[in-house]
Specification:
Blueprint lengths: L4 E4 L21 H10 L3 E4 L13 H8 L4 E2 L13 E7 L10 E7 L3
Parallel strand pairs: 1-2, 2-3
Antiparallel strand pairs: 4-5
Helix pairs in contact: 1-2
């Protein structure tokens, strides 16, 4: 739905704290970014350390999403505990002025139905 956060669960966060975490990670393509833009995503989050293929210095996913005002949150953990739908995602940034990459306190509130 338009205006929703899209959180991408790859399972990569299981490698958190190991040397494998920074290995070639799952990522999105420029085409996937276009789909997210067209769908009206309000935010994109992923449980790996980069939404882009780090070998591609053009960073097409970052470029496309940020050009459309869509924030990106990387390094999420515990997405497997969330239901597919029915929660509100929050990302509270640290108050760092003029930052280009700012840590957030990410959390979700499951909505009782």
């Amino acid at each position: 739905r338009t205006g929703c956060a899209v959180l991408i669960r790859t399972g990569w966060d299981a490698r958190w704290g190991t040397p494998d975490y920074l290995a070639a990670n799952p990522n999105l393509t420029g085409e996937a970014a276009e789909v997210l833009v067209a769908a009206g995503a309000a935010l994109v989050g992923i449980d790996s350390w980069n939404v882009d293929d780090v070998a591609d210095l053009a960073r097409p996913v970052h470029s496309r999403l940020l050009a459309h005002g869509i924030p990106i949150i990387e390094n999420l953990r515990g997405l497997e505990r969330l239901p597919r739908r029915g929660f509100r995602f929050h990302a509270a940034p640290l108050p760092i002025p003029s930052g280009s990459s700012i840590p957030v306190r990410a959390y979700a509130v499951v909505i009782e139905r």
